[in-house]
UniProtKB/TrEMBL annotation, chain A:
<dbReference type="GO" id="GO:0004156">
    <property type="term" value="F:dihydropteroate synthase activity"/>
</dbReference>
<keyword id="KW-0489">Methyltransferase</keyword>
<comment type="similarity">
    <text>Belongs to the vitamin-B12 dependent methionine synthase family.</text>
</comment>
<keyword id="KW-0808">Transferase</keyword>
<protein>
    <submittedName>
        <fullName>Dihydropteroate synthase</fullName>
        <ecNumber>2.5.1.15</ecNumber>
    </submittedName>
</protein>
<dbReference type="InterPro" id="IPR050554">
    <property type="entry name" value="Met_Synthase/Corrinoid"/>
</dbReference>
<feature type="domain" description="Pterin-binding">
    <location>
        <begin position="4"/>
        <end position="249"/>
    </location>
</feature>
<dbReference type="Pfam" id="PF00809">
    <property type="entry name" value="Pterin_bind"/>
</dbReference>
<dbReference type="InterPro" id="IPR000489">
    <property type="entry name" value="Pterin-binding_dom"/>
</dbReference>
Automatic annotation (TrEMBL), chain B:
<dbReference type="InterPro" id="IPR051069">
    <property type="entry name" value="ACDS_complex_subunit"/>
</dbReference>
<protein>
    <submittedName>
        <fullName>Acetyl-CoA decarbonylase/synthase complex subunit delta</fullName>
    </submittedName>
</protein>
<feature type="domain" description="CO dehydrogenase/acetyl-CoA synthase delta subunit TIM barrel">
    <location>
        <begin position="17"/>
        <end position="257"/>
    </location>
</feature>
<dbReference type="InterPro" id="IPR016041">
    <property type="entry name" value="Ac-CoA_synth_d_su_TIM-brl"/>
</dbReference>
<dbReference type="InterPro" id="IPR011005">
    <property type="entry name" value="Dihydropteroate_synth-like_sf"/>
</dbReference>
<dbReference type="Pfam" id="PF03599">
    <property type="entry name" value="CdhD"/>
</dbReference>
């Protein structure tokens, strides 16, 4: 097994400073956040430009060229509901450090993003969700099958579909947490890769609590076989937990300085 | 269903490290397959073979080695002779006499001898110490300076002295730094991390991950090398992608199978044959487990191993 893949989530229009920088094509705040995440050990960077109606292709192309140019072709997850923007980003994307990730497809309105990933030899995050939150794992696994078949029909390798169980917020959906973890185990038993927005679990919690909850959940999820997550790599506790779990799982060889590398 | 052979080629590769200068420079590593798996992908740099001489000259050597150096009056003569043996890619000089608990030769004397050898031959050089970590730190710092511009391998920095040795050999004089651990894979990785944190280019680092003579805790040596290569290639661990140099002679010729005289062990047959066997078997086993270079001392062993490498790679 390879090392756990962390996808840095901090380049997102949901952060006002990033949104402003995207709109003004101001490289400085973008590069600063990208560097912070890479220095902290992120493998991929997520580039969430929002729906970006109209200007999406132009913005995504700008962001991909900016980040890959500055950071030695860092691999990226192209995160938008705007298909044309994803295609424009892939058109200028350099694959030397890893395939682009299409973020994301689901089993409802965004299923065609599977076809888009297949046509562009990209990885796709396949969210096992239809309309509304899946009621149980039978429903999630039904979507998983549907998305997997769609990918395979379009010529994808199964390893390029990263299944997302949809992490749920504890405050309000505490009773669903074990279901999500069991779903990850089912993906893993099928030999599938998996990922997801793990920090969703701690939404609405006090700032000081979130790293603790996120770290506990990532350890449990890695035990279940989770192979990647979209996280804040600048959360030191979380990154230390991931690196330690990688050691226990044999994904990386232990050395006393393992937290520094 | 037709059988489709799957290539065992990896995306990661072992670093290619060059030492020595000019036409005689040698390159080790560079492969992206398991040791000797040339059927999976071409191995550009076959494992290399070095010949070892020490500052004691022939003083402590068995007769079967001495006879090859007949007529040599100085270390320089011996170095020239060693360099002319069939199959030799590089020369290793072991400053054994520096050990404070042994002959305790001064650093000046040993560095003088090293220079004499370096002037006598144009083969790439590997410098080995006396195994006392404090004395080695001093010897290696001076050796790195004395061999400025020769792109020699300083074998090696250990956990206790890596800062001094790494700074002198890797940073000040741009030699190739050896990182030595004693059959401890976690320490092997850690030492590489520490040396690169000093600022030494990881492409100028080789490892000595420890060895033993066959039969002497050797399984552990092999499993350590296996795991180093697996981490380097399968997991793409950049902190273990340094090529491995294994000094075999000092181990293989130190055990009773090689050293016992024919008077003491008549039932074991020729001492020379036994010594060569121990050396060749140890060398071939560590090469098969991942060593990119071995250091031997009997000219016959060197001929056999270098011949095998030509056939296998």
């Amino acid at each position: 097994m390879g090392k756990f893949v962390t996808i840095g989530e901090r380049l997102s229009t949901t952060a006002p400073a990033v949104n402003k920088a995207f709109l003004e094509r101001d490289p400085e705040p973008i590069l600063k956040r990208a560097k912070q995440q890479l220095d902290a050990g992120a493998t991929y960077l997520d580039v969430n430009i929002g729906p970006a109606e109209g200007y999406g292709p132009d913005l995504m192309k700008w962001a991909v060229e900016l980040l890959q140019g500055e950071f030695d072709n860092v691999p990226l997850a192209l995160d938008t509901s705007n298909k044309a923007a994803i295609e424009a980003g892939i058109a200028v994307y350099n694959r030397s450090k890893g395939k682009p990730i299409v973020n994301s497809a689901d089993a409802a309105g965004r299923i065609e993003n599977i076809d888009l990933a297949a046509a562009n030899d990209a990885i796709v995050i396949a969210l096992c969700n239809g309309e509304g939150i899946a009621k149980d794992n039978d429903e999630r696994m039904g979507y998983c099958q549907m998305l997997l078949e769609r990918g395979l029909e379009h010529g994808m390798e199964a390893e390029d579909l990263w299944f997302d169980p949809l992490f749920l917020v504890v405050k309000g959906m505490q009773d669903k947490q074990m279901q999500v973890l069991e779903c990850i185990k089912m993906f893993s038993d099928m030999g599938l890769n998996s990922t997801g927005g793990l920090s969703n679990n701690s939404n609405g919690m006090p700032k000081a609590i979130r790293p603790i909850m996120d770290s506990a959940l990532v350890a449990m999820a890695m035990m279940q076989g989770l192979t990647s997550a979209i996280v804040n790599p600048n959360d030191l506790r979380l990154m230390e937990t991931i690196k330690s779990c990688d050691v226990f799982k044999g994904n990386t060889l232990y050395a006393d300085s393992y937290l520094e590398i | 269903m037709p059988f489709t052979a799957k290539s065992g080629k990896f995306n990661a590769s072992i670093n290619a490290v060059e030492f020595g200068t000019g036409d005689k420079a040698v390159k080790i590593g560079g492969e992206n397959v398991f040791p000797l798996y040339s059927f999976d992908a071409a191995i550009e740099n076959a494992p290399k073979v070095g010949i070892e001489i020490t500052d004691f000259g022939m003083e402590h050597e068995p007769e079967c080695i001495k006879k090859y150096y007949e007529g040599c009056a100085t270390l320089a003569d011996m170095a020239r002779k060693a360099a002319s043996m069939e199959g030799v890619d590089f020369l290793s000089f072991r400053m054994e006499g520096g050990d404070p608990n042994g002959a305790n030769k001064s650093t000046e004397e040993l560095i003088g001898e090293l220079k004499e050898i370096a002037d006598a031959v144009d083969l790439p050089l590997v410098v080995c110490g006396c195994k006392n970590v404090e004395k080695d730190a001093e010897l290696f710092s001076k050796a790195a300076e004395a061999l400025n511009g020769k792109n020699a391998v300083i074998l090696s920095a250990k956990e206790e002295n890596y800062k001094t040795v790494g700074a002198a050999a890797g940073l000040a004089y741009k030699q190739v730094v050896g990182a030595e651990s004693a059959v401890d894979i976690n320490l092997a990785k850690q030492l590489n991390v520490l040396i690169s944190q000093l600022g030494v280019d990881s492409k100028s680092v080789v490892m000595n991950v420890g060895t033993a003579a066959v039969g002497y805790g050797f399984e552990y040596v092999i499993s350590t090398m296996d795991r180093v290569k697996a981490a380097a290639l399968q997991q793409g661990d950049a902190n273990l992608q340094m090529p491995i140099i294994t000094p075999v002679a000092s181990e293989a010729w130190g055990v009773k199978e090689a050293m016992a005289s024919e008077t003491d062990a008549p039932e074991w047959g020729s001492q020379e044959e036994r010594g060569i066997d121990m050396e060749v078997e140890t060398a071939m086993a560590v090469i098969a487990a991942g060593s990119n270079a071995v250091i031997l001392k009997h000219p016959e062993s060197i001929k056999i191993i270098s011949g095998l490498m030509k056939e296998l790679v």
